[in-house]
Design brief:
Blueprint lengths: L24 H4 L10 E11 L5 E13 L4 E12 L4 E12 L2 E2 L4 E15 L1 H10 L14 E15 L3 E8 L2 E4 L14 E8 L4 E2 L2 E2 L3 E12 L2 E12 L2 E10 L4 E12 L2 E10 L9 E11 L4 H4 L6
Antiparallel strand pairs: 1-2, 1-18, 2-3, 3-4, 4-6, 5-6, 6-7, 7-8, 7-9, 8-10, 10-13, 11-12, 13-14, 14-15, 15-16, 16-17, 17-18
Length: about 325
Amino acid sequence: MLFLQISFFVGRSQNESLLQPFSNPMLLNPAFIGMNNETNLHVGNQYYRVDSTKAYNLLYITYDTYSNKLNGGIGLIFQQGIIGHRNISTNELGFAYSGVPKKTQNGNFRFAVNTNFLLATKQLYVHSLDGIMLNSESPPNPPGSDFFQYLLLKPRLAVLWESRVARWGLTAGYPLKVNLGGSNEDIEEVVPANFTFYISGNREGYKKGLRTKPFVFVPELIVFYQENWTMARFHAYMKHTDNTFGLFIQSDITNNIHCLGGTAGISSGNIRIDLSAGAGIPGISDSVGICGELTLQIKVPRVDYSKINPWAPH
């Protein structure tokens, strides 16, 4: 099975990994790592169709947990995909660390760092076809004759503030690029900085992890900005026992596509599945874009081994 990972920046300034997932808190803001002393495994796929000529897909797998030895949360990130219209494959690995909360009078701050490494190559089957079918007079398929294209180092810093009423966070990244091939003239030498702003109402229906209300209403706003691309999403959802349902408006300001959609989620024990899907609103969008995301989350509660066997060394 071929997994696709594609960014959707239009123009010359492009970064292949920033199709922004909305259902994975760790990818929005790494300061969410290790929150509530839990261990989480997320597997997700995000799809975005701009028009009949451009569609983008992102597969991601993340793992995060809390470490007593490191006195904070740690996370691992894996992403893999293809930039179809440019015949480029990408493989990305990352590590993130989130420190313990710093308490204030009205809430607490969490700080985090994250670094990803992305390797871009020409698609293997396209590169192989060039070697078999090309003659001396035929030019190679894009992006050129070189197999290795470029390497991106993607450091990020994040802060998250949480109170009884709201959460807000800011993530800032500045990718550094190293060219590995000499034939990718369509890509800028410098990849611009990016920023992700997140704000949401806190879960007022919970107290110390226990439900105090049958329904919980949570509004959230996410804004992503990078040169040549701005995306904003407002999402409001209700949670009742193990089920969630909500509505969202997602605006790709750069491409003038404004999607209206819905979300639904269901959980059983420590396994949760969430789905979101929407389409561009006719009349105010340049094209009828389609967006969607499907995620699977497995949550492992923290185990206190001293209560299981108080005499065991730990």
